[in-house]
Design goal:
Blueprint (H helix, E strand, L loop, with lengths): L2 E8 L2 E9 L8 E6 L5 E6 L3 E6 L4 E7 L13 E6 L5 E6 L3 E6 L4 E7 L5 E6 L5 E6 L4 E5 L4 E6 L6 E6 L5 E6 L3 E5 L4 E7 L3 E6 L5 E6 L3 E6 L4 E7 L6 E3 L5 E4 L5 E5 L4 E6 L8 E4 L5 E4 L4 E5 L6
Antiparallel strand pairs: 1-2, 2-29, 3-4, 4-5, 5-6, 7-8, 8-9, 9-10, 11-12, 12-13, 13-14, 15-16, 16-17, 17-18, 19-20, 20-21, 21-22, 23-24, 24-25, 25-26, 27-28, 28-29
Length: 313
């Protein structure tokens, strides 16, 4: 159940946060959580291979369904590694060890597309705002673009020479951004070509504005970068003691990063520090920003915290 805490501190003093324990198999980690932009629901999955939808306002499970079934009794894993959700919360996409991308009708709890083509596990997925286009990437070093309605691969995008670790797609589904252990790339999905290698080092996480103009990314050496993607140019580097997940507000103004046990909030336009939050988590696995500016953070055990928006002067 949700509880009120006073454990987040910044320059203005304690701030109330909400603490929620997401339901899951307690012996299995929660590998990925996708927050709907309105901040009302969390869609998540992990080692128990189950996709669940949690109502964050009423603090209750909405629906759960078997996400990626076991391949065989002798091979019982098929963990879910990554999830994404459309802005309206209607559709979600998941990928993992199964080598298959699954698209879900969240309200019905039904798989509406099972997209086959990857030759190895899938570590990154993203979905367009209308739910019609999906991109996926993983250990086979490729990025694939999919038409959900037709259930077919539109393009296999080659160029990475190592694992693809993160993906983002513009709201209109026209461009995708991929990062991996080698570099980071911008793809024109209509033509199926790479239009820019905008970073020549590893990238493990990326968050973009819906129009694809700005981004924040996490790379090697605990470096977090803020990007002007129209110019394919890094405009600021944040050096942290370590780096986990990153998030960016829809207008590109607020960036949130999690260097391990705490969370820092930044004004991405003015490139200045705003706040530091310290949830009672051993390790913060990832973060998100809702459409109303609320900040979300969670750990591998499905313990989730919510903070109110940070005011920017």
């Amino acid at each position: 159940m949700s509880q009120k805490y006073h454990i987040a501190r910044n320059g203005t003093g304690p701030k109330p946060v909400v603490r929620i324990q997401l339901d899951h198999d307690g012996e299995c980690s929660v590998n990925s959580v996708a927050i709907t932009p309105d901040g009302r629901r969390a869609v998540y999955g992990g080692e128990d291979r189950t996709v669940r939808v949690w109502d964050l306002e009423r603090d209750r499970l909405v629906i759960s369904f078997e996400g990626h079934p076991c391949r065989s009794p002798e091979e019982p894993t098929n963990y879910i590694y990554n999830m994404a959700v459309t802005p309206d919360g209607r559709y979600a996409v998941s990928g993992g060890e199964e080598r298959m991308v699954r698209v879900w009708d969240v309200e019905r709890g039904q798989c509406i597309a099972a997209l086959e083509g990857h030759s190895a596990g899938i570590s990154a997925v993203a979905i367009s705002a209308d739910g019609r286009r999906v991109v996926s990437g993983g250990w086979d070093k490729t990025v694939r673009a999919w038409d959900v309605r037709e259930g077919r691969c539109l393009a296999t995008l080659e160029g990475h020479v190592d694992v693809v670790d993160c993906l983002a797609i513009t709201a209109d589904g026209q461009r995708a951004f991929s990062g991996g252990w080698d570099d980071a790339r911008i793809w024109d999905l209509e033509r199926g070509v790479c239009v820019s290698v905008f970073h020549d080092d590893c990238m493990h996480d990326i968050a973009i504005t819906p129009d694809g103009r700005r981004a924040v990314s996490r790379g090697c050496g605990a470096k977090v970068r803020i990007w002007d993607l129209e110019r394919a140019e890094c405009v600021h580097v944040i050096r942290a003691s370590s780096a986990g997940g990153v998030a960016l507000s829809g207008d590109g103004r607020i960036a949130v990063i999690t260097p391990g046990m705490h969370i820092t909030v930044w004004d991405a336009e003015r490139k200045r520090f705003l706040a530091r939050y310290e949830p009672s988590l051993e390790v913060v696995s990832d973060v998100a920003i809702g459409g109303d500016g609320r900040i979300f953070a969670w750990d591998w055990n499905g313990l989730l915290f919510i903070w109110p928006p940070v005011k920017v002067n």
